[in-house]
Amino acid sequence: MGAEGDTSGREVRVLDDHVALARAAADEWRLRALAAVAASGRFAVALSGGATPRAVYALLADPAAPYRDALPWARTHVFFGDERAVPPDDPRSSYGMARGALLSSVALPPENVHRIRGEDEPGAAARSYEDALRAFFGVAPRFDLLLLGMGADGHTASLFPGSPAIDEPSRLVAAVPAPAAGPARITLTLRALQAAAHAVFLVSGAQKAPALARVLSGESGAEALPAARVRPAHGSVLWLVDRAAAPFLAAP
Ligand code: 6PG
């Protein structure tokens, strides 16, 4: 495993493979959950959809792994970074995926799960999720842990390159069209992502390598990739990437 830190609150860790990546992410969850509960009595985490986090959720729920019985589920509040405009039982639902892999297997009070209502009209779902965030956090959603993925085009959450939602000045949540064929999305805006205390990107696979190199390069053109713009104002960013995604990164 390699690690690179810098003074901007950003750290990059290269893990051998997707299994090691899932373990590193679960370790990070445990660290942040225990610290947040010790400091404030609760742990607020935002989940990512996509394929990469599924192994992390399964590990957290695994009774044989050192997480499930060590974590403060009763004090954990689960949110979502984005959602597809589909009902919870649709296989494309991020909430449905997280429920199947994690939420239904741990002692999490149902009222601590704050999902985005993908079955509602997207604009209405965005507004009601924003209201829920403001009721819970006040002005800005300061997640103790914000899990994010990155697409091969540099998108993160459902902020796709060129989307007006990226520069949305006041809303925390936006309804956005699907990038290609597919359901509309409801997503946290960049403004909301920047309020997190700690963001962790999970990036796996060779198809992400060019975008990852660009995002981490710091070149001015990289700002066109939404993932490069996530820099919490009073927080840190950890990039957990596997070796397959990292061939173009400078050695630590
Ligand atoms: C989602 C997220 C999206 C995802 C990336 C990476 O699909 O739910 O909105 O931002 O995290 O597309 O997805 P993979 O982990 O599947 O590559």
Structural features, described:
The chain is an alpha/beta fold and 252 residues long. It has 6 helices and 10 strands, in the order E-E-H-E-H-E-E-H-H-E-E-E-H-E-H-E. The protein has helices spanning 18-40, 52-61, 94-101, 122-137, 190-193, 209-217, and strands at 2-5, 10-15, 43-47, 76-80, 82-84, 145-149, 173-176, 185-188, 198-203, 236-242. The protein has a 7-stranded mixed beta sheet. Strands 5-8-7 form a 3-stranded antiparallel beta sheet. Strand 1 and strand 2 form a beta hairpin. The longest helix is centred in the N-terminal third of the chain and has 23 residues, at 18-40. The chain is globular. The N and C termini lie close together (10 Å). The mean pLDDT is 95. Residues 48-52, 82, 94, 149-151, 155-158 line the site of 6-phosphogluconic acid.
Keywords:
252 residues, alpha/beta, Rossmann fold, seven-stranded mixed β-sheet, 6 helices, binds 6-phosphogluconic acid
Q: How are the elements arranged and paired?
A:
Layout: E1 2-5, E2 10-15, H1 18-40, E3 43-47, H2 52-61, E4 76-80, E5 82-84, H3 94-101, H4 122-137, E6 145-149, E7 173-176, E8 185-188, H5 190-193, E9 198-203, H6 209-217, E10 236-242
Helix pairs in contact: 1-2
This protein binds 6-phosphogluconic acid.
Point out poorly predicted stretches: none
> What is the general shape?
globular
Structural class: alpha/beta
Average pLDDT works out at 95
Domains (count): 1
Helix and strand element order: EEHEHEEHHEEEHEHE
Bound ligand species: 6-phosphogluconic acid
CATH topology: Rossmann fold
